[in-house]
C-alpha cells in the first residue's frame, strides 16, 4: 500500500506542475504569434497582447486544470480504499484549484499594468516558482489525505493540516492588511503596519499556530490514552482483553495492532504455561506417589522384605523421574531461547542417522528388531548438533518402542531440503491422532502405561526442535505401522559435500549385530512415547 500511496503523490504533483507549464507555455506562444513588440510609446503600453488567453485562464481555465489534476489523482489512487480515494481526489482538486486561482488573479491584475511583458514574466515565474510550488503543495496535500484509514486522516496528516491551515490563514490576514495599508494610506501607514506585524503579529501567529497544533495533537492522541487505560486494566485481569484499534494506518494504528498481537502471544504463552505446569505436576505425582508408597511399605514391614528388589525398583523410578525432569528442562529452555541465538554448525544428517542406528542395535528395547538405515548422498543441515541428535534419537526410540520386527530409517535430499523418514511395522497411528501425538503428555490407547509408553514428551520435543531449525515433523501415510517424516533445509557444506568417500551408503543390523556405537549421546534423555 505504501507503493500505491507514493505513486499517487508523485503522479498528482507532476500533473499539477505540468498544468502550470502548459498554461504559461500557451501564453508565451500566443505572445509570439501576436507579433513583435511595439517600440517605446503609448501604443506599447496600451496594446493587450494576451488578454483573451488570460481571460480564458481566469474562467474556466483554472477550474479545468484543477479538475484534470483531480482526475489524475483519482486514477493514481486505484489501489486505495474508496474513502481514501475520494478524500485524496478532493484534496488534490481543491489545493490545485486554489493555487491556480491565486496565480491567475495575479495575471489578471498585472496584465493591464505591463501588457507587453506579462507573457514573458508568467513564463519565467511559472517555470521557476509557480509550477514547482504548485506540484509540491498539491503532492503534500495528497500525501496527507491518502493514508489507508478509510474514515480518518492519520495522526501526522492532522498535525500537518492544522499547522498549514493556521499559518496560511494568519499569513493571508497579514498580507491583506499590508495591501489595504498601501491602497488607503501613505508610506507612513505601511511602516506602522510592518512594525505592528513584527512586534505583535509574528508572536500571535506563533501562539495561535502552537495552540491549534496542541489541540489537534491532543485530539489525535486520544486513541493512545485509550490504549494506555486498557493496558492498565489488563495488568490486573486475564489476558483475553484487547486494546481498541483506531481506523487509521498511522503510527497509532500500528501501535494498537502490535499491542494486540503481543497480547495474543502472551495469552497463548500463559495458557500453554498453565497447561504445561498442570500436566507436569500430574506426570510427576504418580511416580512420586508410587515410590513413596513402596518405600514406606518396606519401612513399616521390614521383615521378609527383599531390600535389593526394593532398591532396584526405587532406582528405576528415580531414573524415570530424572528423565522426565530432563525433558521438562529441555522444553523450558527451548521455550525461552531461539535457535539462531545458539552456535550453529553444519551437521551431516545421514551420518548422524547411521550412528544412531548402530547405537540402537545394542539397546535392550531393540533386541528383537531389525534396524536398517538407507542414505544416499550426504545431507548437511545447519543447526545445533545436540538438538538435531536429540530429534533423531527421540523419533528412532519411539519407532523401536512400537515396532514389531523392523525399523527402517531413510535419508534423502531434494529441492533444497533433507528428508528423514523413520518407518516401523507396529500398530501405527490412527489418522485422527496424527496431530494429537505431537501434543505434550499425549499417549495413545495402545501405550497408556507410563512404564511402557513414556511420558509423552518425545515427539513434542522432536517437533519443537524441527520447527526451531526451519523444518517440519509430520506423520505420513503408511500401509503398516507408523511413518514419521522430518524435513529440514539443507545448507552448503562446501568441500565436505563432495569429499571423496561420501557416496551412498547404509547400515543394516539385527539384534546383537556388530557395529561401533557412533552416537554422541545426550545425558538424561528419556525414551519417547506416543
Description:
By secondary structure, this protein is an alpha+beta fold. The chain is 61% helix and 9% strand. The chain contains 14 helices and 8 strands. The strands form 2 sheets. The chain has a 6-stranded mixed β-sheet. It has a two-stranded antiparallel ribbon with strand order 1-3. Strand 6 (472-476) and strand 7 (483-489) form a beta hairpin. Helix 3 (51-76) runs antiparallel to helix 4 (82-110).
Enumerate how many helices there are, as a single number.
14
| Percent of residues in helices | 55-70%
Shape: elongated
Structural category: alpha+beta
Give the biggest beta sheet. Answer: 6 strands, mixed
The number of strands is: 8
- Give the low-confidence spans: 446-453, 494-505, 510-529
Mean pLDDT over the full residue set = 79
How many angstroms separate the termini? Answer: 47 Å
**How much β-strand is present in the residues?**
5-15%
Structural Rg: 40 Å
The H-and-E topology, N to C, reads as: HHHHHHHHHHEHEEHEEHHEEE
Strands of the widest sheet, in order across it, are 6-7-5-4-2-8
Descriptive key words:
530 residues; six-stranded mixed β-sheet; 8 strands; elongated
Briefly, what is this?
With 530 residues, the chain is of the alpha+beta class. It has helices at residues 2-34, 42-46, 51-76, 82-110, 118-145, 155-184, 187-220, 222-234, 251-300, 307-336, 349-360, 385-402, 450-453, 458-468, and strands spanning 345-348, 370-375, 380-383, 406-414, 417-424, 472-476, 483-489, 505-509. Helix content is 61%, strand content 9%.
Amino acid at each position: 500500500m505504501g507503493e500505491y500511496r507514493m505513486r499517487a503523490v508523485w503522479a498528482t504533483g507532476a500533473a499539477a506542475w505540468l498544468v502550470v507549464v502548459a498554461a504559461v507555455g500557451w501564453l508565451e506562444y500566443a505572445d509570439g504569434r501576436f507579433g513583435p513588440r511595439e517600440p517605446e510609446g503609448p501604443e506599447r503600453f496600451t496594446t493587450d497582447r494576451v488578454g483573451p488567453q488570460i481571460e480564458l485562464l481566469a474562467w474556466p481555465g483554472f477550474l479545468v486544470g484543477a479538475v484534470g489534476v483531480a482526475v489524475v489523482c483519482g486514477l493514481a489512487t486505484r489501489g486505495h480504499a474508496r474513502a481514501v480515494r475520494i478524500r485524496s481526489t478532493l484534496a488534490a482538486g481543491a489545493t490545485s484549484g486554489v493555487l491556480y486561482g491565486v496565480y491567475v488573479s495575479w495575471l489578471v491584475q498585472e496584465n493591464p499594468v505591463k501588457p507587453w511583458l506579462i507573457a514573458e514574466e508568467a513564463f519565467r515565474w511559472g517555470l521557476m516558482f509557480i509550477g514547482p510550488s504548485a506540484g509540491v503543495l498539491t503532492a503534500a496535500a495528497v500525501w496527507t489525505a491518502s493514508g489507508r484509514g478509510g474514515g480518518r486522516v492519520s495522526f501526522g496528516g492532522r498535525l500537518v493540516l492544522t499547522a498549514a491551515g493556521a499559518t496560511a490563514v494568519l499569513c493571508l490576514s497579514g498580507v491583506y492588511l499590508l495591501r489595504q495599508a498601501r491602497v488607503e494610506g501613505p508610506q507612513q501607514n505601511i511602516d506602522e503596519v510592518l512594525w505592528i506585524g513584527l512586534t505583535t503579529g509574528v508572536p500571535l501567529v506563533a501562539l495561535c499556530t502552537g495552540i491549534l497544533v496542541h489541540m489537534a495533537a491532543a485530539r489525535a492522541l486520544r486513541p493512545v490514552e485509550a490504549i494506555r487505560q486498557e493496558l492498565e486494566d489488563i495488568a490486573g485481569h486475564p489476558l483475553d482483553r484487547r486494546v481498541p484499534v483506531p481506523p487509521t494506518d498511522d503510527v497509532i494504528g500500528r501501535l494498537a495492532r502490535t499491542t494486540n498481537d503481543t497480547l495474543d502471544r502472551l495469552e497463548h504463552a500463559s495458557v500453554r504455561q498453565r497447561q504445561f505446569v498442570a500436566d507436569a505436576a500430574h506426570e510427576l505425582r504418580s511416580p512420586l506417589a508410587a515410590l513413596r508408597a513402596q518405600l514406606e511399605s518396606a519401612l513399616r514391614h521390614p521383615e521378609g522384605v527383599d531390600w535389593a528388589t526394593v532398591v532396584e525398583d526405587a532406582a528405576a523410578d528415580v531414573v524415570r523421574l530424572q528423565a522426565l525432569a530432563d525433558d521438562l528442562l529441555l522444553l523450558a529452555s527451548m521455550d525461552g531461547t531461539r535457535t539462531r541465538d545458539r552456535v550453529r554448525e553444519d551437521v551431516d544428517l545421514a551420518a548422524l542417522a547411521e550412528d544412531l542406528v548402530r547405537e540402537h542395535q545394542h539397546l535392550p528395547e531393540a533386541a528383537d528388531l531389525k534396524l536398517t538405515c538407507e542414505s544416499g548422498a550426504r545431507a548437511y543441515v545447519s543447526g545445533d548438533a545436540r538438538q538435531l541428535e536429540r530429534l533423531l534419537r527421540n523419533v528412532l526410540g519411539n519407532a523401536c518402542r512400537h515396532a514389531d520386527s523392523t525399523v527402517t530409517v531413510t535419508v534423502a535430499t531434494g529441492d533444497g531440503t533433507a528428508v528423514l523418514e523413520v518407518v516401523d511395522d507396529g500398530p501405527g497411528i490412527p489418522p485422527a491422532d496424527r496431530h494429537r501425538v505431537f501434543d505434550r503428555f499425549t499417549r495413545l490407547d495402545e501405550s497408556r502405561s507410563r512404564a511402557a509408553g513414556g511420558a509423552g514428551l518425545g515427539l513434542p520435543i522432536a517437533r519443537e526442535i524441527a520447527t526451531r531449525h526451519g523444518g517440519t515433523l509430520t506423520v505420513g501415510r503408511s500401509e503398516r505401522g507408523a511413518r514419521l517424516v522430518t524435513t529440514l533445509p539443507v545448507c552448503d557444506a562446501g568441500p565436505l559435500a563432495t569429499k571423496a568417500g561420501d557416496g551412498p551408503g547404509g547400515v543394516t543390523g539385527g539384534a546383537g549385530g556388530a557395529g561401533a556405537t557412533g552416537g554422541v549421546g545426550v545425558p538424561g534423555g528419556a525414551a519417547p512415547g506416543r
